[in-house]
Amino acid sequence: MMKIVSWNVNGLRACVNKGFYDYFKAVDADVFCVQETKLQEGQIALEIGEEYEQYWNYAEKKGYSGTAMFTRIKPLSVRYGIEEDFEPEGRIITLEFDSFYLITVYTPNSKRDLSRLPYRLEWEERFRNYLRQLDSIKPVVVCGDLNVAHQEIDLKNPKSNVGNSGFTPEERDKMTTLLGSGFIDTFRYLYPERENMYSWWSYMPKIRERNVGWRIDYFLISSRLGTSLQEAEIDCHIMGSDHCPVSVTLEIPGNFGVIKPYEH
């Protein structure tokens, strides 16, 4: 079995002071992925143990975006970005293992005024083509903040949010197209009718207490990994960010990599 966790921490340095280490230790993931690290190289010394390899993709802009992956399983290769091994906003990291690829991603937000929607849609096309290219080689697992509530069941107030950033017809259509390209939304695959399960809440007063949220953090897997999917969870009770962690447990066939030995 392999457990993978994803969490948009909305500033890792702040999250570390709000229980990050407690959750990291308790969840005991084989791979732990984070988005919106909002830091530069050398700004944090993460105390997660020597058994984890650490991979960071920093945004050029300070205090913005950024992703990281911490893995007990030594990857065959690491890639940053899509077309090239570089991505100025630090949004993507790809780890290659023996029998699958694992990608963490922080999808661009189209902004409240939708001024970045055209860029977002173009980016979505490049990202989908990238996933399809990888999927033609070996199965793919994608996790992260995809910045879209796909269906009405995925947010508390769908009718009043139609056309808003993260729930525009264009963004939802891109998710439909991605899933139609041979990928599974793991949580909906296991729980197609489960309501009131969200991964992001506004910081406005009482919003989280009333569970007025959106499910915008996902694990997607290649369709042929469907039989390997054991569990998909949303840890709604975990605080420390405006997002909560999400996870999957997979039974990967064959050898999925080399587990690093614990070093004491």
From TrEMBL:
GO MF annotation: an example: phosphoric diester hydrolase activity
Record text on cofactor binding: Probably binds two magnesium or manganese ions per subunit.
Feature type site, description Important for catalytic activity: D217
Catalytic-site annotation from UniProt: Y106, D145, H243
Residues given in the record as Mg(2+) binding sites: N8, E36, D145, N147, D242, H243
Alphabetical keyword list: Hydrolase, Magnesium, Manganese, Metal-binding
Family per similarity comment: Belongs to the DNA repair enzymes AP/ExoA family.
Name recorded for this polypeptide: Exodeoxyribonuclease-3
Organism the protein comes from: Fontibacillus panacisegetis
Source taxonomy: Bacteria, Bacillati, Bacillota, Bacilli, Bacillales
